Amino acid sequence: MSRFLNVIPVTDAVRAAEKIAPAKKTERVPIEQSSGRVLAEDIFADTDIPGFDRSIVDGYAVRSADTTGASDAIPALLNCTGRVLMGIHDPALALCTGACIYTPTGGVLPAGADAVVMVEYTDEAGDTVLVKKAVSHGENVLQKDEDFMKNRTVFTRGRRLNPQNIGVLAACGYSTVAVAMKPVIGIISTGNELVTGVTVPEPGQVRDANAPMLAAWLADYGCIPRFYGIVRDEREAFEAVIAKAITECDVVILSGGSSKDDRDMTAAVIATQGEVLVHGIAIAPGKPTIIGKIGSIPVFGLPGHPASAFVVLIAIVRPLLDAMLGQNRSLVRTTNAVLSVNVPSARGREEYVRVKVENGIATPLFGKSGLLNTLVASDGLICIPAGYEGLEKGSAVSVILW
Ligand code: AMP
Ligand code: MG
After folding, report:
1. Among 58, 63, 86, 334, whose CB has the most other CB atoms within 10 angstroms?
2. How far apart are the C-alpha atoms of 143 and 55, rounded to whole Å?
3. How confident is the model at residue 1 (pLDDT cuts 50, 70, 90)?
4. Entry pTM
5. Ligand nearest to the CA of 206
6. Neighbours of ion ligand 2 (CB under 5 A)
7. What's the alpha-carbon Rg for the chain, to the nearest Å?
């Protein structure tokens, strides 16, 4: 067996990952519990929103033509003929020429009115209202269906819901909503040197940073992480834990042991129980990455270095999760920035560089992939395409935000 990895381009690896994504499963949840979930149905408004023309200020509903030329010096004098009550549509309350009707914020605009004068620009003198400012047609009025029109699509499936969206769902008459089920993602840390966070490491040992980091990101992304503990680089232990994980999870992620050292077992074990589809991706950091499949369960082998594992999670695993969740890929958050310095890169592999972004300036944080600190200080990644020897200072870049 060759000791070198046969690397493939990132786009091919992403395609390979997306191809093995298990089919999306959906469930209905109460809308209040749907924030962060990916919509699995299109959303329609069952009524016009708002359902009637309404005032957006406290003031007097008027015919705008009756206020033409009104000013502090020469107010328009209108006869107040009624008051709109909140939550009530009184068809009898209609406006005649030369009249006005008091309307609170959100009140139904009376028939015949086409604008509202803010109360601040009026004075009362008995039944007469002095209007000291002209209003134009439609001023201070929210038109019926101005927000959303009955039977129109408000949101399409694939959107990740946020609290604002949930306000709209409620306004559209939804109490529950169909969303993608949360995929269960198994996490296995591998390595004889690893100990859990509560253990003080002896010389030669390191604490497992990857499992909690991967779990936290996955939970934020709408998955259910399930941790299978630290596995030593021993064949039987490895095989047993993977065999268990694939029966309980939708996807399994291993970290460590993904390269080609004698102690690196991930590829061999996946090959025994299933199939290795990719071993080696033209990505830096993250080259010794495995994409495999056991039965219908995708199994990833991520490099052990925390920064490498995280970059591969974002660049390679996330597209598979998006496919599983039915999430529209265009919703990945990016920001445009300009590079503060030259960034070198090796031709032939796509390079992901961690950057910090401030006021539109992206500054690379060069660091060995074994270090956690550049990961913490960074806001996201820029990608230097495979055909480039680097990017020059001043280049426009798109930063994939964490
Ligand atoms: P490996 O990919 O197994 O060759 O590991 C590469 C490097 O990452 C080694 O220095 C490991 O000690 C380190 N490493 C592996 N797994 C973890 C982990 N879960 N947390 C922190 N460091 C790790
Ligand atoms: Mg290892």
Report:
1. 63
2. 9
3. low
4. 0.88
5. 1
6. 191, 256-257, 304
7. 30
